[in-house]
Amino acid sequence: MSKTYPDFEGSVAVVTGAGGILCSEFSKTIAQTKAKVALLDVNYDAVKQVADEISAQGGTALAVQCDVLNPESLKTAHQNILEKFGTCNILLNGAGGNNKRATTTSEHYVCDGTNEVSFFDLKKEGIEFVFGLNFMGTLLPVQEFARDMLTGKGNNTIINISSMNAFRPLTKIPAYSAAKAAISNFTQWLAVYLADQGIRVNALAPGFFSTKQTRPLFYKPDGTCTERYKKIISHTPMHRLGVPQDLDGTLLWLLDPDASGFVTGVVVPIDGGFSAYSGV
Predict the structure, then answer these.
(1) How many CB atoms neighbour CB 51 within 10 A?
(2) Res 13: pLDDT
(3) Which domain of life is it from (predicted)?
(4) Whole-number Å distance between alpha carbons of 242 and 270
(5) What is the DSSP letter of 41?
(6) Which pLDDT score is estimated for 2?
(7) Residue 209: which of 23, 19, 15 has the closest Cα?
(8) Alpha helices in the chain (DSSP H)
(9) What is the pLDDT of residues 105-132, one digit of tens each?
(10) CB 207 within 8 A of CB 236
(11) Catalytic residue among 176, 219, 229, 277
(12) What is the distance between the alpha carbons of residues 92 and 88, in angstroms, rounded to a whole number?
């Protein structure tokens, strides 16, 4: 069955982290609504490829190199978008991710003299990097681009990307889990703060998705499943991993004022039931 897209012709959408697997999919989906889409990422080549794909399919896209943790870089990107497209009225904050420097080796503390990285071995710099990329990498773009929405005219919407582990923290990744929980909380706070300005603020909370980036988490080099994959599937009532297209419907619903005009401050899990399952 073909998808039905709302008509956002005349709208300008800004997507951060648009060079990544999920956010490139988000960008292509938004482009299908006839909105102009500005794709921001620190990796220009990645977003240029996505922008070219959107243009080849008849959409309107602009690739912009931008460091979401640098206010000056955000200002420069914003000025570029204003000159090329006009003011932003849709902001999707997708920049984020985890880092090995903020990850423990085991799920539980092991005191046996091994070379495992425990919670007590994690360095301040690694934790700050992960928390900063996810939380500050959401807050700073809002400060820059939501200024365009303060007129209260049109469909002004902010979508943040939280995670299923904001509901149920995952083992091994304390900084990433904490940062995503902060994004969920920030989404609710911002929804209240901007409500009188006609700006809706919501978040997607994806679960485990099968992408090129996550493949090492699920599969060994020989193609067999990892123990972590087996745990995930056993705790997912729908018994499968998600694919990027599974996010499209919820994204379009939250963007469309005709469908979700009275919805703000919600964090929607899209995880096959993982966050609902207690394990017994």
Answers:
(1) 25
(2) 98
(3) Bacteria
(4) 8
(5) E
(6) 63
(7) 23
(8) 21-31, 44-56, 71-84, 124-131, 137-145, 174-194, 215-218, 227-234, 248-255, 257-260
(9) 999 998 766 778 999 999 999 999 999 9
(10) yes
(11) 176
(12) 11
**C-alpha to C-alpha distance for 256 and 275, rounded to whole angstroms:** 26
Q: Strand, coil or helix: what is 230?
A: helix
**Contact between residue 218 and residue 122 where contact means Cβ atoms under 8 Å apart:** no
Q: Tokens representing 264?
A: 């703000």
**Kind and range of the H or E element at 268?**
strand 267-270
Q: Residue type for 138, please?
A: T
Known catalytic residue: 176?
yes
pLDDT along the chain (280 residues), means of 10: 84 97 96 98 98 98 98 98 97 95 91 82 96 97 97 87 94 95 98 96 95 81 89 94 94 97 98 92
DSSP 206: E
Q: How far apart are CA 142 and CA 107, in angstroms?
A: 34
100: buried, middle or exposed (CB in 10 Å: 19+, 13-18, 0-12)?
exposed
What is the per-residue pLDDT for 31?
Answer: 98
pLDDT, position 113: 64
| Residue 95 one-letter amino acid | A
Residues composing the chain: 280
User: Cα dist. 85→10, 70, 176, 274 in Å?
Assistant: 9, 22, 34, 40
- DSSP per-residue string spanning 103-142: --SSSS---SS-S---GGG--HHHHHHHHIIIIIHHHHHH
* Whole-Å CA distances, 11 to 47, 57, 60: 20, 18, 11
Residue holding tokens 């990307």?
Answer: 161
CA geometry: angle at 254 spanning 249 and 255, to 5°?
100
* 188 touches 252 (CB < 8 A): no
